[in-house]
Design goal:
Elements (H helix, E strand, L loop, with lengths): L1 H40 L9 H7 L7 E3 L3 H7 L15 E9 L5 E9 L3 H13 L17 H6 L25 E3 L7 E4 L5 E4 L22 H8 L2 E3 L7 E2 L2 E4 L2
Antiparallel strand pairs: 1-2, 2-3, 4-9, 5-6, 5-8, 7-9
Helix pairs in contact: 1-2, 4-6
Protein backbone atom coordinates (compact mmCIF):
# COMPACT_ATOMS: atom_id res chain seq x y z
CA UNK A 1 0.00 0.00 0.00
CA UNK A 2 2.88 2.34 0.82
CA UNK A 3 4.37 1.69 -2.63
CA UNK A 4 0.99 2.46 -4.24
CA UNK A 5 0.79 5.85 -2.41
CA UNK A 6 4.31 6.66 -3.49
CA UNK A 7 3.48 5.82 -7.13
CA UNK A 8 0.34 8.02 -7.08
CA UNK A 9 2.26 10.93 -5.51
CA UNK A 10 5.00 10.60 -8.12
CA UNK A 11 2.43 10.60 -10.93
CA UNK A 12 0.72 13.74 -9.54
CA UNK A 13 4.03 15.58 -9.23
CA UNK A 14 5.05 14.57 -12.74
CA UNK A 15 1.78 15.87 -14.20
CA UNK A 16 2.14 19.02 -12.19
CA UNK A 17 5.51 19.70 -13.74
CA UNK A 18 4.37 19.13 -17.31
CA UNK A 19 0.74 19.76 -18.30
CA UNK A 20 -0.05 22.60 -15.84
CA UNK A 21 3.27 24.21 -16.65
CA UNK A 22 2.33 24.37 -20.35
CA UNK A 23 -1.02 25.92 -19.48
CA UNK A 24 0.61 28.45 -17.17
CA UNK A 25 3.12 29.37 -19.87
CA UNK A 26 0.27 30.10 -22.29
CA UNK A 27 -1.38 32.53 -19.85
CA UNK A 28 1.98 34.15 -19.05
CA UNK A 29 2.57 34.90 -22.71
CA UNK A 30 -0.77 36.72 -22.97
CA UNK A 31 -0.11 38.61 -19.77
CA UNK A 32 3.39 39.57 -20.88
CA UNK A 33 2.03 40.81 -24.20
CA UNK A 34 -0.49 43.04 -22.43
CA UNK A 35 2.17 44.36 -20.06
CA UNK A 36 4.71 44.94 -22.83
CA UNK A 37 2.22 46.97 -24.82
CA UNK A 38 3.13 49.90 -22.57
CA UNK A 39 6.52 49.93 -24.30
CA UNK A 40 4.74 50.94 -27.50
CA UNK A 41 1.76 52.87 -26.12
CA UNK A 42 4.20 55.05 -24.18
CA UNK A 43 6.84 54.72 -26.94
CA UNK A 44 9.72 53.81 -24.64
CA UNK A 45 12.71 54.20 -26.95
CA UNK A 46 15.56 51.79 -26.28
CA UNK A 47 13.32 48.95 -25.09
CA UNK A 48 13.22 45.63 -26.90
CA UNK A 49 9.91 44.43 -28.26
CA UNK A 50 8.55 41.20 -29.75
CA UNK A 51 6.58 40.57 -32.94
CA UNK A 52 3.62 39.47 -30.80
CA UNK A 53 3.56 42.81 -28.98
CA UNK A 54 3.82 44.73 -32.26
CA UNK A 55 0.88 42.76 -33.65
CA UNK A 56 -1.17 43.43 -30.53
CA UNK A 57 -0.33 47.13 -30.81
CA UNK A 58 -1.77 47.30 -34.30
CA UNK A 59 1.00 46.13 -36.61
CA UNK A 60 4.17 47.50 -38.12
CA UNK A 61 2.56 50.37 -40.01
CA UNK A 62 1.52 51.93 -36.72
CA UNK A 63 5.13 51.81 -35.51
CA UNK A 64 6.56 54.09 -38.19
CA UNK A 65 5.45 57.72 -38.29
CA UNK A 66 6.69 61.31 -38.51
CA UNK A 67 4.51 63.61 -36.42
CA UNK A 68 4.61 66.93 -34.53
CA UNK A 69 6.77 66.68 -31.41
CA UNK A 70 4.74 65.51 -28.37
CA UNK A 71 4.79 67.76 -25.31
CA UNK A 72 6.68 65.27 -23.15
CA UNK A 73 9.41 64.85 -25.78
CA UNK A 74 9.68 68.61 -26.26
CA UNK A 75 10.10 69.03 -22.50
CA UNK A 76 12.96 66.51 -22.51
CA UNK A 77 14.75 68.46 -25.25
CA UNK A 78 14.85 71.81 -23.49
CA UNK A 79 18.34 73.05 -22.66
CA UNK A 80 19.81 69.92 -24.25
CA UNK A 81 19.28 69.29 -27.95
CA UNK A 82 17.05 72.35 -28.17
CA UNK A 83 18.11 75.83 -27.11
CA UNK A 84 16.30 79.06 -27.91
CA UNK A 85 17.63 80.36 -31.22
CA UNK A 86 16.56 82.41 -34.26
CA UNK A 87 17.06 79.62 -36.80
CA UNK A 88 14.88 76.67 -35.85
CA UNK A 89 11.66 76.33 -33.89
CA UNK A 90 9.43 73.51 -32.71
CA UNK A 91 7.11 73.75 -35.71
CA UNK A 92 10.10 73.17 -38.03
CA UNK A 93 10.79 69.77 -36.45
CA UNK A 94 9.11 66.37 -36.37
CA UNK A 95 9.26 63.37 -34.05
CA UNK A 96 9.90 60.07 -35.82
CA UNK A 97 8.83 56.78 -34.28
CA UNK A 98 10.49 53.67 -35.71
CA UNK A 99 11.45 50.12 -34.88
CA UNK A 100 14.90 48.80 -35.67
CA UNK A 101 16.94 45.59 -35.47
CA UNK A 102 20.33 45.31 -33.83
CA UNK A 103 23.19 43.08 -34.99
CA UNK A 104 21.96 40.30 -32.68
CA UNK A 105 18.54 40.20 -34.38
CA UNK A 106 16.64 41.88 -31.53
CA UNK A 107 13.88 44.37 -32.26
CA UNK A 108 14.04 47.75 -30.52
CA UNK A 109 11.86 50.82 -30.17
CA UNK A 110 13.54 53.93 -31.57
CA UNK A 111 12.85 57.64 -31.94
CA UNK A 112 14.43 60.59 -33.70
CA UNK A 113 13.86 64.33 -34.12
CA UNK A 114 14.45 65.79 -37.58
CA UNK A 115 13.41 68.69 -39.79
CA UNK A 116 9.94 68.45 -41.29
CA UNK A 117 11.63 68.90 -44.67
CA UNK A 118 13.10 65.38 -44.48
CA UNK A 119 10.84 63.70 -41.90
CA UNK A 120 8.74 61.59 -44.26
CA UNK A 121 11.79 60.53 -46.25
CA UNK A 122 13.70 59.50 -43.14
CA UNK A 123 10.71 57.60 -41.71
CA UNK A 124 10.36 55.76 -45.02
CA UNK A 125 14.08 54.90 -45.10
CA UNK A 126 13.96 53.61 -41.52
CA UNK A 127 11.03 51.37 -42.47
CA UNK A 128 12.95 50.04 -45.49
CA UNK A 129 15.98 49.35 -43.31
CA UNK A 130 13.78 47.59 -40.77
CA UNK A 131 12.13 45.43 -43.43
CA UNK A 132 15.59 44.41 -44.64
CA UNK A 133 16.67 43.68 -41.04
CA UNK A 134 19.47 46.23 -41.42
CA UNK A 135 21.21 46.50 -38.03
CA UNK A 136 21.00 49.75 -36.07
CA UNK A 137 22.13 49.31 -32.49
CA UNK A 138 20.48 52.30 -30.80
CA UNK A 139 18.12 55.07 -31.83
CA UNK A 140 17.70 57.35 -28.83
CA UNK A 141 17.35 61.11 -28.64
CA UNK A 142 20.73 62.71 -27.84
CA UNK A 143 19.01 64.22 -24.78
CA UNK A 144 19.48 60.81 -23.11
CA UNK A 145 23.20 61.60 -23.22
CA UNK A 146 22.80 65.21 -22.10
CA UNK A 147 23.14 66.18 -25.79
CA UNK A 148 26.86 65.37 -25.53
CA UNK A 149 27.89 64.23 -29.00
CA UNK A 150 31.03 62.37 -27.96
CA UNK A 151 29.12 60.34 -25.36
CA UNK A 152 26.31 59.30 -27.67
CA UNK A 153 28.72 58.40 -30.47
CA UNK A 154 30.73 56.15 -28.16
CA UNK A 155 27.45 54.35 -27.42
CA UNK A 156 26.89 53.78 -31.16
CA UNK A 157 23.71 55.85 -31.09
CA UNK A 158 21.82 56.85 -34.24
CA UNK A 159 20.24 60.32 -34.23
CA UNK A 160 19.53 63.49 -36.19
CA UNK A 161 18.65 66.81 -34.52
CA UNK A 162 20.91 68.55 -32.02
CA UNK A 163 21.35 72.30 -31.95
CA UNK A 164 25.13 72.60 -32.04
CA UNK A 165 28.07 73.87 -34.06
CA UNK A 166 30.29 71.76 -36.29
CA UNK A 167 33.09 70.23 -34.24
CA UNK A 168 36.03 72.63 -34.00
CA UNK A 169 34.17 75.62 -35.48
CA UNK A 170 31.49 78.21 -34.72
CA UNK A 171 29.46 77.29 -37.83
CA UNK A 172 26.13 75.59 -37.21
CA UNK A 173 26.00 71.92 -38.10
CA UNK A 174 23.24 70.62 -40.33
CA UNK A 175 22.23 68.65 -37.25
CA UNK A 176 21.27 72.02 -35.74
CA UNK A 177 18.57 72.28 -38.40
CA UNK A 178 17.65 68.61 -38.27
CA UNK A 179 18.85 68.02 -41.83
CA UNK A 180 21.55 65.39 -41.16
CA UNK A 181 21.30 61.85 -39.82
CA UNK A 182 24.15 59.93 -38.13
CA UNK A 183 23.93 56.13 -38.28
CA UNK A 184 25.77 53.64 -36.02
CA UNK A 185 28.23 56.29 -34.92
CA UNK A 186 30.93 54.28 -33.12
CA UNK A 187 31.63 52.02 -36.09
CA UNK A 188 31.35 54.85 -38.63
CA UNK A 189 33.42 57.64 -37.11
CA UNK A 190 34.35 61.15 -38.18
CA UNK A 191 38.01 61.95 -38.66
CA UNK A 192 40.15 64.76 -40.00
CA UNK A 193 43.90 64.63 -40.60
CA UNK A 194 45.59 67.80 -39.35
CA UNK A 195 48.51 69.63 -40.96
CA UNK A 196 50.75 68.59 -38.05
CA UNK A 197 50.23 64.92 -38.87
CA UNK A 198 47.82 64.17 -36.03
CA UNK A 199 44.30 62.85 -36.58
CA UNK A 200 41.18 64.18 -34.86
CA UNK A 201 38.63 61.38 -34.39
CA UNK A 202 35.04 61.40 -33.13
CA UNK A 203 34.26 59.45 -31.13
CA UNK A 204 37.77 59.27 -29.71
CA UNK A 205 37.30 55.54 -29.02
CA UNK A 206 36.77 54.70 -32.72
CA UNK A 207 40.34 54.81 -34.07
CA UNK A 208 40.27 51.16 -35.21
CA UNK A 209 37.15 51.80 -37.32
CA UNK A 210 38.82 54.55 -39.37
CA UNK A 211 40.45 51.76 -41.40
CA UNK A 212 37.68 51.02 -43.88
CA UNK A 213 39.56 48.11 -45.47
CA UNK A 214 38.59 46.01 -42.44
CA UNK A 215 35.31 44.13 -42.01
CA UNK A 216 33.27 44.73 -38.87
CA UNK A 217 29.67 45.02 -37.68
CA UNK A 218 27.59 48.10 -38.52
CA UNK A 219 30.05 49.30 -41.19
CA UNK A 220 28.72 51.71 -43.86
CA UNK A 221 30.32 51.74 -47.32
CA UNK A 222 29.26 52.13 -50.95
CA UNK A 223 27.79 48.61 -51.02
CA UNK A 224 25.68 49.27 -47.95
CA UNK A 225 21.88 49.48 -48.06
CA UNK A 226 21.88 52.53 -45.80
CA UNK A 227 24.18 54.36 -48.26
CA UNK A 228 21.95 53.37 -51.17
CA UNK A 229 18.66 54.48 -49.60
CA UNK A 230 19.89 57.82 -48.25
CA UNK A 231 21.74 58.85 -51.40
CA UNK A 232 18.76 57.90 -53.58
CA UNK A 233 16.59 60.08 -51.34
CA UNK A 234 18.71 63.20 -51.93
CA UNK A 235 21.34 62.96 -49.19
CA UNK A 236 25.11 63.08 -49.50
CA UNK A 237 27.38 60.78 -47.52
CA UNK A 238 30.21 62.14 -45.39
CA UNK A 239 32.28 59.11 -46.29
CA UNK A 240 32.75 60.63 -49.74
CA UNK A 241 34.16 63.92 -48.44
CA UNK A 242 37.83 64.68 -49.19
CA UNK A 243 38.78 67.27 -46.55
CA UNK A 244 37.62 64.89 -43.82
CA UNK A 245 35.67 61.66 -43.50
CA UNK A 246 32.34 61.31 -41.70
CA UNK A 247 31.23 57.74 -42.32
CA UNK A 248 28.16 57.94 -40.07
CA UNK A 249 26.79 61.12 -41.66
CA UNK A 250 24.05 61.65 -44.27
CA UNK A 251 22.95 65.22 -44.91
CA UNK A 252 20.37 66.71 -47.23
CA UNK A 253 21.77 68.16 -50.44
CA UNK A 254 20.50 71.73 -50.72
Amino acid sequence: MGNMKLWVLTAILTCGLTLPACSSSHHTTKSDTRADLTVLTQWQAGKTVTAEVVAAYGGLDKCFAAEPIPDDVWARMQGKTYKENPHIKRSDLRHIRALHWDYDNRMHVGEMICNKQIADRVARILRQLFDAKYPIQRMLLPDVYGADDETQMRDNNTSCFCYRAIAGSAKLSKHARGLAVDINTLYNPYYKDRADGTRFIQPATAAEYCDRTKSFAYKIDHNDLCFKLFTEAGFEWGGDWTSCKDFQHFELIE
